[in-house]
Amino acid sequence: MPISQPIGIFDSGYGGLTVMKEILQQLPQYDYIYLGDNARAPYGNRSFETVYRYTLQCVEWFFEQGCPLVILACNTASAKALRSIQQNDLQRLNPDNRVLGVIRPTTEVIGQYTTSKKIGILATRGTVNSGSYTIEIEKFYPDITVTQEACPIWVPLIENNEHNSPGADYFVQKHLEHIIQQEAGIDVLLLACTHYPLLLDKIRKFLPDGIKVISQGEIVANSLADYLQRHPGIENRCSRSGERTFYTTDDPEDFDAHASIFFGEALHSKHLNL
Ligand code: DGL
């Protein structure tokens, strides 16, 4: 058995770092490995089959590194691959390990933020088309109306460091206006893509007062803390040396140059050839 048994955190690229940052604030004692599949990002417009295949390959790699628990810190992967991995692959790969996503923990609590009972979901095309948010929110809060808006340009803008440019204003405003016009009375907008917190300032600038914008990082971190408390069998297997290791399937220098914007501090990644 490997000595280090880190918690794995996965995203198609950089977005999962916004979640990892919050997890580290709450649970700094554990070891973590982050993997960004930058070479194949973005996942947002890819088919179910492709997102499943890529995500499964990454989960297998995390298990080989000794991770007892992997968090898919990517809504697109959570929407398109998580259920299949849990139902079809976990038993074969390692039935004692666990893979968790970001959609369930978010939908469990999202109802607490709305008074109008109208929520808007901003996400990638893949997440929107999967219907996962609509289905999950209906389970926990059947009286809430969910309106979705796919923002397919937002991730490429962010990944190319153009999110603060004047050109980004057009695309941010366009999708915000569209979702607000679709359903009057929305009082909560959920950033259901882990890249989107980087657009938070711009989003706030173009939104009318009275609409709350919710990012997932803190919600997912709270949920992980709770999960570990309720699952001592998994928690006891997570090693605690405070180590953080970062991998990217693309160029590490490039990753390091971009990653600090998402993570809030400098980091040094290694290359992983998948
Ligand atoms: N960060 C991912 C998410 O939360 C999506 C980015 C992508 O399209 O690859 O959905």
Report what the structure shows.
This protein is of the alpha/beta class. It has two domains: 7-101 and 218-271, Rossmann fold (3-Layer(aba) Sandwich); 104-215, Rossmann fold (3-Layer(aba) Sandwich). The chain has helices at residues 16-26, 48-64, 75-80, 82-93, 103-109, 125-130, 132-140, 154-159, 166-182, 200-206, 217-230, 232-235, 252-263; strands at residues 7-11, 32-36, 69-72, 98-100, 118-123, 145-150, 188-191, 212-214, 244-248, 269-271. It has a six-stranded parallel beta sheet with strand order 4-3-1-2-9-10, with helices on both faces. β9, α13 and β10 (269-271) form a beta-alpha-beta unit. The longest helix has 17 residues, at 48-64. 45% of the residues are buried.
Cα radius of gyration in angstroms: 18 Å
What molecules are bound to this protein? D-glutamic acid
How far do the termini sit from each other? 23 Å
Give the fraction of residues assigned to helices.
40-55%
List how many beta strands DSSP finds.
Answer: 10
CATH first level of the largest domain: which class? Alpha Beta
Structural class computed from helices and strand pairing: alpha/beta
How would the global form be characterised? globular
Which fold name corresponds to the CATH topology of the largest domain?
Rossmann fold
> What fraction of residues sit in β-strands?
15-25%
- Can you tell me the residue ranges where pLDDT is under 50 for at least 5 consecutive residues? none
Largest β sheet strand count, sense and barrel closure? 6 strands, parallel
- State the helix count: 13
